[in-house]
Amino acid sequence: MIFKKQKRILVVRTDRVGDTTYITPAVRELKKAIPDSFIATLTQPHTSKIFINNPYVDVILTDDLKKENFWKVVKEIRKYKFTHALLMFPTERAAYQLFFAGIPYRVGVGHILYEVITFMRSVSRNNYNPIRHEADYCLDLVRKLGVKTNNYKLEIFLSEEEIREAIDFLKNKGIFEEDKKIFIHTGSLGSGPNWSESKYFSLTKKLLDILKDASIKFIFTAREMSKSFIDEIKKLDPNRIHIIAEEIDDLRMMIKVISQADVFLASSTGPLHIADALNKKCIGIFCRRKVSSAKHHGVINEHSINIEVSEENCKKYCSADQNNCGIEKGLSEEEVINSILKLLNQ
């Protein structure tokens, strides 16, 4: 694609961590299709860490979503004289910010009133029918600019110094570079259906019985783990079980540490999508419900396994309207164990 004038494109996604990783293919495909373009991202401050060292991003802008900072963000956006803005997830705040920043070509999702009022172009998701991956839906806004692509592989970039920092961090916890590291992220902060802590406890106990090698370490990273769960899980094997959640002080450190995983297990949540973007071997557990399914939020990289509640178990354990997911009973520990063993042996 050839443009007569430099395109200065702002890619906006101001929701959660996992959702923000979904725009990493968009910035890559834009820069590859329009090499002389200027690409910026607008995210929340903590999710902006996803784009550090990204070779396709020229500048990283942030919005803390505080009411009193609305116009400050507008002023900052205006400084860069953007020609295009892609609002990957509809929010009224961002729609008006892009309008008041004077960006002439703005694309959003759907036909929401505030998008109509601000004269925003749009792409439709057709009520998610047929269902596609969220990262692919994000590319629809890129396609609106004429970019032809089907590559929605997620990407996060780390420097050699950051990788060494992660290795040293784990070494100080008694987890060495040559150890096999199974990361288990038990939390989801409500982003999707998930197992209970008691089921993760049972899973870990079985894994310890099967994988007796002392060099196989189990690393727990969810900050929302209960004290009772932490106390009990440590007792299973203090030398092989490591709780590091409280020592990871920001998202970039989480990214660095996840880069050392040999296998990463989680439900549909931000750290799982970070591991995917780092091209780690992942096991994602998913509900069958349409917008919570593996097809919509599953791990993309080819090294990984998505496990979803079967149709049979959905009918057996989920509510008839599927508003209440039966993932606790619908997915067995054995399915996850077999997947972990498979990935460890690859």
Question: Your description of this structure?
Answer:
It is built from 15 helices and twelve strands. With 346 residues, it is an alpha/beta fold. It has two domains: 8-143, Glycogen Phosphorylase B (Rossmann fold); 160-344, Rossmann fold (3-Layer(aba) Sandwich), CATH 3.40.50. The strands form two sheets. A six-stranded parallel beta sheet has the order 3-2-1-4-5-6, with helices on both faces. Strands 9-8-7-10-11-12 form a six-stranded parallel beta sheet, with helices on both faces. Helix 2 runs parallel beside helix 6, helix 3 packs across helix 4 and helix 8 crosses helix 15 (333-344). The two termini are 40 Å apart.
